[in-house]
Amino acid sequence: MPRAAALALLLLLYGLCGPLQARTVYRCVQKATVSMATAPEPGSVCKAIEIDDNAVQTPNLWGNFGVFSGTLYEREQDGKTVYSTRNLPGSTPYLRFTMATPPGEPAHAGLGRVGTPQLNRHAPQFRAAAKATGVDDAWLRAVAHAESAFDEKAVSPKGAQGVMQLMPETASEYGVSDPLSPAQSINGGARYMKSLLRRYNGDRTLAAAAYNAGIGVVARYGGMPPYAETRQYVDKVLALYGRYREAMGTGPERPAL
């Protein structure tokens, strides 16, 4: 986790603990994930770390692990209100936070902006891909709109290419020999999206997050990654999906598959 994000969360936990003093923050490990908490977490191995508010440098409490979630949760424990970055039973979201995408991660903001649906861009290719895969035509167009604004020649700074902005390894996996071909890109992107929707039981939010940041990142964080770029991207795709469904006259949202 970037130092700035860890420090910001730590300062937030400080603020919830009372007046300035030397205080205790708990670093809790459970199933190879780390959380920060104001009290030991049930089911976790927790280490109490005392930190002097007057210390010149805040220690690295996260070690080699990433932050578990992008949300700070509140719950009752032993008659007291406690806070943690892990979603334990009885917790309710208290504060959602984001962090910058670490270098080398595929998460990206996308090249397209939310705007008017563009129904004439590669329409036959989207219809064919939707029919072949069973993935909603409007959903595929929303992803393409957010990814490339339908520009078949688009190449992102991170190496994604074409209408669906497929990374080279993904394009190869789905048989896309020419990522700048609209038909190949849309077909490959639709097949990839179908596999994501199946993986996440039709959850469009997680499928979009994985399309943006990668399956491994979604698994690492146990759901939506806390990256600001990914959260903005998912919000963009969901907004566009509603607009495309309305523009295409497809009525209420149907099951993802």
UniProtKB/TrEMBL annotation:
Keywords: Signal. The keyword RNA-binding does not apply. This is Transglycosylase. It holds the Pfam family SLT. Belongs to the transglycosylase Slt family. Residues 1-22 form the signal peptide. Residues 126-224 form the Transglycosylase SLT domain. The keyword Membrane does not apply. SUPFAM superfamilies: Lysozyme-like.
